[in-house]
């Protein structure tokens, strides 16, 4: 049986983990490679790096981080942030990324998704969808795509966009609720449910995890195939194996390590 | 000296395949060298060969054909010299007779069968089949024998939308279940391949690669 994946996500800026990872044993909490290695040993099912470096003129720092991670961790790695061209994707894959996540470039040009999927295969193209609820309280929910960290609205309906990018070849969707991100109030479950039931591709839930029950609800109510979290793991609130034990107790198939 | 050549034909994921083989090789007695190459001469000198693959079947096949003499060198090494061969993901799918991804493309035809879209019996199952799934071993094989334990199941990492449907059932060594059985590990004589990614399957995957480096078919 296919297991539900738990994916710790690291925000990386100029080759360093943003805010650091508060693990007991880490010598350098700001080194993404060391953090990735710790999560790998802890039984993370996949790892995710999100590069939030402001300038994308020098991508070599990120490529170096990816390459060193791939040397140390034999676990699937998704890398996103500032991916704009087929050449960006190729470089990340050659450095050792398994999947590449596309965000703004897919919003600006849907055909980029098709081009990337035809070149590298559907399975390594993840489209990251940052969605915000735009319908008033009490009205049927509607979400739109936002870019630039939730600051710029696009007027694009999130569900329509999800369907479209999957039909163009996106192998997976990373859905982040911009309303919930950083709140620890749990995933936006109606958003997750609406997208996961609209598309054939797997959906990763992101944004808002504050407790282990939030992970369970993402699967049982949101219908997602994988759960991504950052702060609950980085701050040492819970370990990956505690998260897995909690999900297994709720009847969710997970990979026990 | 035990030289493993990882075939470089423009497909992604070469770095992680090489690193995993180097790590796996450190568990094997004797000196193990892992070399990345697209040079047919180099391939012909290899003790064993790994064909990784990420991407679309047709694109990978074009990549192989774009290097003059590469496919012939692989065929000579594997079919005539009988050297061990291991294909990973699309590298395993290329063993088939034909691939039906985007267009119909000829494979190496070392394992008779077609590579076709996965169509799970349960329509709610997502495509690609992505994540950790357990293996069921159908027959003994030196690459898997000491790994799967008494319950003969172990999780491996899969990412694929297409699967190899083997014409000869005996070529399928292990399956995984995703709305029906999917060929997870195929083998015939000195040729083997896995649909899953051993280089991404943590300890289990590294142990399998060590077995490949030791394999004397």
Give a structural overview:
The complex is a heterodimer of chains A (257) and B (217). By secondary structure, chain A is α/β, with parallel strands linked by helices. Chain A has a single domain (5-249), classed as Aldolase class I (TIM Barrel), CATH 3.20.20.70. Chain A is built from 10 helices and 11 strands. Chain A has an 8-stranded parallel barrel, surrounded by 8 helices. Chain A is globular and about 50 Å long. The mean pLDDT of chain A is 92. Chain B has a single domain (2-214), classed as 3-Layer(aba) Sandwich (Rossmann fold), CATH 3.40.50. In chain B, the strands form 2 sheets. Chain B has a 9-stranded mixed β-sheet with strand order 2-1-3-4-13-12-11-8-9. A 4-stranded mixed β-sheet of chain B has the order 6-5-7-10, with helices on one face. With 217 residues, chain B is α/β, with parallel strands linked by helices. Chain B is globular and about 50 Å long. Chain B starts with a strand and ends with a helix. In chain B, helix 1 (14-25) crosses helix 6. Chains A and B meet through helix 2, helix 3 and helix 5 of A and helix 1, strand 8, strand 9 and helix 6 of B.
């Amino acid at each position: 049986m296919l297991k539900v994946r738990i994916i710790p996500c690291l925000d990386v800026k100029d080759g360093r983990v943003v805010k650091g990872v508060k693990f007991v044993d880490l010598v350098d909490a700001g080194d993404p490679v060391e953090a990735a290695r710790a999560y790998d040993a802890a039984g993370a099912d996949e790892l995710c790096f999100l590069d939030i470096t402001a300038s994308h003129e020098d991508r070599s720092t990120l490529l170096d981080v990816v390459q060193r991670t791939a040397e140390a961790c034999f676990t699937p790695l998704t890398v996103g942030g500032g991916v704009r061209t087929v050449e960006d994707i190729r470089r990340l894959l050659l450095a050792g990324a398994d999947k590449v996540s596309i965000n703004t470039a897919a919003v600006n040009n849907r055909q980029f998704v098709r081009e990337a999927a035809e070149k590298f295969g559907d399975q390594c193209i993840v489209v990251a969808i940052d969605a915000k609820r735009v319908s008033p309280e009490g009205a049927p929910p509607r979400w739109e795509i936002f870019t630039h960290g939730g600051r710029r609205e696009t007027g694009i309906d999130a569900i329509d966009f999800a369907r479209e990018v999957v039909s163009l070849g996106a192998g997976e969707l990373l859905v982040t609720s911009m309303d919930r991100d950083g709140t620890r109030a749990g995933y936006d479950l109606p958003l997750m449910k609406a997208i996961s039931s609209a598309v054939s591709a797997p959906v990763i839930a992101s944004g808002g995890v504050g407790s282990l029950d939030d992970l369970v609800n993402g699967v049982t109510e949101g219908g997602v195939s994988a759960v991504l979290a950052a702060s609950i793991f980085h701050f040492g609130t819970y370990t990956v194996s505690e998260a897995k034990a909690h999900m297994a107790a709720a009847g969710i198939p997970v990979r026990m390590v | 000296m035990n030289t493993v050549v990882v075939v470089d034909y423009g497909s992604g994921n070469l770095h992680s395949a090489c690193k995993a083989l180097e790590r796996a090789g450190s568990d094997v007695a004797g000196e193990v060298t892992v070399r990345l190459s697209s040079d047919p001469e180099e391939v012909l000198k290899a003790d064993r060969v790994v064909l990784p693959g990420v991407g679309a079947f047709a694109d990978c096949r074009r990549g192989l054909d774009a290097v003059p003499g590469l496919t012939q060198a692989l065929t000579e090494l594997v079919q005539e010299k009988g050297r061990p061969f291991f294909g990973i993901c699309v590298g395993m799918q290329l063993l088939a007779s034909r691939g039906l991804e985007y267009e119909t493309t000829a494979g190496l035809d070392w394992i008779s069968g077609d590579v076709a879209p996965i169509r799970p019996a349960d329509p709610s199952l997502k495509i690609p089949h992505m994540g950790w799934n357990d293996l069921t071993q159908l027959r003994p094989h030196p690459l898997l024998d000491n790994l799967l334990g008494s319950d003969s199941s172990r999780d491996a990492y899969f990412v694929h939308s297409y699967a190899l449907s083997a014409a000869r059932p005996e070529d399928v060594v292990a399956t995984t279940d995703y709305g029906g059985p999917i060929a997870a590990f195929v083998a015939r004589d000195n040729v083997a391949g896995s649909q899953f990614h051993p280089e991404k399957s943590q300890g289990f995957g590294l142990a399998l690669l060590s077995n490949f480096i030791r394999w004397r078919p």
